[in-house]
Amino acid sequence: MEKSEFGVVGLGVMGSNIVLNLADKGVKVSVFNRLSKGKKNAVEAFLRGEGAGKKILGFTNLKDFAQSLESPRKILLMVKAGDAVDEMLRGLLPFLSRGDIVIDGGNSNFKDTARRLDELEDSGILFVGAGISGGEEGARNGASIMPGGNEKAWGKIKPYLQKIAAKLPNGEPCCEWIGGGASGHFVKTIHNGIEYADMQMIAEIYQTMRKSGKFSNEEMAEVFEKFNRGKLESFLIEITAKILRHKDENGQFSLDLVLDAAGQKGTGKWSVESGAELGSPISCIAEALFARFVSGMVEMRKSGARIFGSECKFNMPSGAMGAVLENALYAAKIIAYAQGFSILSAASKKFGWNLNLGEIAKIWRGGCIIRAKFLDRVTEAFSADCDLENLLFSEFFAEEIRSSVNSLREVSSLAAQGGISMPAMFSALAYFDFVRQTESPSNLIQAQRDFFGAHTYERTDAPRGEFFHTKWE
Ligand SMILES: NC(=O)C1=CN([C@@H]2O[C@H](COP(=O)(O)OP(=O)(O)OC[C@H]3O[C@@H](n4cnc5c(N)ncnc54)[C@H](OP(=O)(O)O)[C@@H]3O)[C@@H](O)[C@H]2O)C=CC1
Ligand SMILES: O=C(CO)[C@H](O)[C@H](O)COP(=O)(O)O
Within 6 Å (CB) of ligand 1, which residues are found? Predict the structure, then answer.
């Protein structure tokens, strides 16, 4: 039997589309999916359906699957994150040889990836944790891929991963080696965290327009379409306009029938946990995550509305709103991304990953959910200064913030006065105003800590690192 060049485990939404993408590029692929009682044979269904007539070999037995692959084996796991990855690794291991490569392409917790790298070290299996973004469409036509882990694998898997990656207008693939350890999955986690902040901020703008009482769904779609022709050009803005325009078979706006309780699968939570562990203030991501939690408390919100009323308004003439909201969203978005890149930098230092932040912004420029025009400028900023302390301090973004932050102030204060909840955008402004304070109020916090717990404090008139205690009473 002619052997396949590449193997994919898991024929769900992502796996099946990646297989089709590889097959389109002329790669001979073997696929595996488990057989489950009472469920159709996914391999058979795939080979008869979308996979028909392509160079794809299908298996429901891991030994046969492994034996169908040329050496060194290159296997991509596209299964549910968590136990399924460990189960598949355990199942595959007896049929693999030293030098074979296993790539976990799911949204795995980077701590699991670090553990798996350790566990596989002695086996000689080269393990890679690759974040993949772009959803179904990206998997099929070009995704943003963030591989990290055992670097010895990179040369062997690079041609395949770069083949299925999205391409920038200059032809460069949105896939480059991220770094050692769990860096690939960490970068994907923060990508998703930024995605949470971006989505929440867009939702806050939608709510502002909706609650101003001046915009229909179609008019809001027009506003977002206009945003998408300017500095906010991005996939999330583009799909927001499409969602707003969509009507069901009864002519009703589909969005109006979607329950306002946002789900989540874990990457936002892991981002926020990492923010706390690394001491990195990713407040926009945290607020976006917490907003999803509050949104899920549907009954609690009904009680809140009964007790306090749910009226809210936004007092601005409709003709002025588009431009002000655009600038406010732009400022908030830059701040959220700056926080995201700061945590990448903090993790890079802590784990010795030597992340290239400009390159990461480039990989996110195509294929992924947070792809956006302004990421070109992020790449430029980190290329000009790879040790940039904060993205906001780069020449370009400092100027962009200077010219847009007053809109964020105006929108935030009108929203606060009118009772519109804007957790992510308010937190962006609070962060911005904090990072430009030479005199923060935290002297008081230190004094309070010293008062009640003798925790000591540093003094403004002594070198850093010298600690003092005062008897305050
Ligand atoms: N959907 C998306 O937009 C994106 C998803 N991802 C990530 O990619 C991975 C796959 O996602 P997606 O394709 O959407 O998921 P699906 O739910 O469509 O498919 C999941 C796949 O995992 C398999 N699987 C589940 N549990 C086990 C198990 N215990 N043992 C073996 N196989 C198992 C399923 O097999 P079976 O059919 O037999 O249950 C199926 O093949 C996830 O980690 C996800 O977070 C990443 C980027 C985007
Ligand atoms: O990885 C993704 C996109 O980049 C997935 O779509 C992910 O499921 C999104 O996260 P959540 O379900 O928590 O909103």
Answer: 10-15, 33-34, 36, 42, 78-81, 84, 87-88, 106-107, 132-133, 135
Give pLDDT, residue 1. Answer: 77
pTM here is: 0.96
Ligand 1, atom 48, lies closest to the CA of 135
Which CATH superfamily is 6-181 part of?
NAD(P)-binding Rossmann-like Domain (3.40.50.720)
52, HSE (Cβ side, Cα atoms, 13 Å): 4
Task: Locate CATH 3.40.50.720 in the chain.
Answer: 6-181
Measured CA to CA, the distance from residue 249 to residue 284 in angstroms comes to: 37
Say how many Å lie between the CA of residue 12 and the centre of ligand 1. 5
- Comma-separated ranges of CATH 1.10.1040.10 domains in the chain: 188-435
ipTM: 0.98
pLDDT of residue 91: 98
Listed range (8-12, 20-24, 37-41, 424-428) with the worst mean pLDDT: 37-41
pLDDT given for residue 213 in this prediction: 84
Q: Residue 238 corresponds to which tokens in the numbers above?
A: 């583009």
Burial pattern 31-53, b for ≥16 Cβ within 10 A else e, equals: bbbbeeeeeeebbebbbeebbee
Instruction: State the fold for domain 446-473.
Output: 1.20.5
Of these residues, 176, 195, 204, 326, which one is catalytic? 195
- The pLDDT value recorded for residue 233 is 98
CATH number of 188-435: 1.10.1040.10
CA distance 120 to 395: 45
CA of 350 to the centre of ligand 1 (A): 31
Average pLDDT score over the chain = 97
**Pocket lining: 133 vs ligand 2, CB cutoff 6 Å:** yes
Query: What's the CA-to-centroid distance between 174 and ligand 1, angstroms?
Result: 22
**pLDDT for the residue 189:** 98
Q: Give the count of alpha carbons within 13 A of 306, CB side only.
A: 6
* Given the residues 74, 188, 211, 231, the one annotated as active site: 188
Task: Tell whether the model's pLDDT for residue 115 goes beyond 80.
Answer: yes
273 is catalytic: no
Atom of ligand 2 nearest to the CA of 265: 13
Measured in Å, residue 80 CA sits from the centre of ligand 2 at 12
Q: Is 156 a catalytic residue?
A: no
Q: Which atom of ligand 1 is nearest to the CA of 39?
A: 38
Return the closest-CA partner of residue 337 out of 429, 229, 263, 428: 428
Read off the pLDDT band of 451 (50, 70, 90): very high
Q: List every span in the chain annotated with CATH 1.20.5.320.
A: 446-473
